[in-house]
Amino acid sequence: MNSVIETMLNKYNPQNKKERENAIKEIIQEIALAGLSRGGFFEKAAFYGGTCLRIFHGLNRFSEDLDFALLKKDPDFKIDDYFPALKKEFDSYGIYMVIEPKKKEANNEVQSAFLKGNTLMLMASFFAKNEDAKSIVPNQKIKIKFEVDIDNPIGGTTEFAYRMLPSPYEVQIFDEPTLFAGKIHAILCRNYKNHVKGRDYYDYLFYIGKESKFNLRYLENKLKNTGGIIDNKEILTLNKVKELLKAKFESVDYESAKEDVSNFIKNKEDLNYWKKELFISTLEKLAPNDSIDNIKRCFSLSFPENTKRVIDNEHLDKYDINQVLLKSFSGNSLYLLTKELSDEGEGPIKLLKAKNKYVIAIPPGLSDYIDHFETGIVKFVDINTYISNDLLESEYILIKTLNDEPLVELRKNCNLE
Known about the structure:
Elements: H1 3-9, H2 17-38, E1 45-48, H3 50-57, E2 66-70, H4 83-92, E3 98-101, E4 110-118, H5 119-126, E5 141-149, E6 158-163, E7 169-174, H6 176-189, H7 198-209, H8 216-226, H9 238-251, H10 254-262, H11 276-281, H12 291-298, E8 326-328, E9 336-339, E10 351-353, E11 358-361, H13 370-375, E12 378-380, H14 383-386, E13 396-401, E14 406-411
Parallel strand pairs: 2-5
Antiparallel strand pairs: 1-2, 3-4, 4-5, 6-7, 8-14, 9-11, 10-11, 12-13, 13-14
């Protein structure tokens, strides 16, 4: 056995054939991530889903698939382009895997492939001394689905994470609030005729137990992208999310949900208290992520006054913070108050001009919300008072929605720390 594979196996103590197969699958998943990383895949896509939650956040259940989403639409993207990098990575550890693309259906916004390996050969390679081979059908396959969402909505936030085995590599993943928002979306939108995906509910409780907050804007965009849950003109609120989840929790077949997830966890007693009262009780703990945390991630640094154009996101870290910042009342919008950077709002940061060379700039990933100003969903209150010479002496600018609910408070001279 390859020494690296042996090291990776050391963290497992499988007690039966099923647990040994799951250990093999988890190691194959991590080798696949390493191959994708070295093939440049994470320059275009981010990792999410249950396997991401297990590897990078410690979720204590097995997860079958590798789920990814493109960071932006790319009509030329082909999942097949990364097969050579995957094959090279598996070959380097002496693991024979077949990579088969799944035929794309018309209007399907997902590209899929399967990683397949002969169960008998893999079991003999990973666990040479066990007796499982006697009960394995000769042509039985270990399969892992590899899926890329090519129509992922904007608003998600990513970060880079690192793993040391099988050898050091880097993965771009959606951050925890965005992952949580994706899980809430799955609960609200995933439909099965005679089956409830209990894994979604298990993961939801995992987030609640960690006191995770969710990315409200990303959830709104995903729900609108899916359709049928909220209106396209609706601004999603925390109360609306709670209302939608409560209705779902009241209608779930919890026995079906427990049956689904039981094969993916070791401690079945975790499911004993699954009922609507448990899940409804979690709603009081549900909260959107804090805007200051988002600013640190999206806008770690701003621009100096002499910047002549709006630069792209990847170069933000080369500039000093000397501007100011914001606090969001609702946690669903992020803005930066800064001096005017150029006559033309170039690049991913779109600008609204105001008097005295001050502008409102929307951070990367949220630039589409400039439309809220243009369409009147959001308006300035007493704009002539705030956007004037008095601004230099004013502590903040308050933006409100048309129904006069506070949306964003933009402060001057705030320290991000």
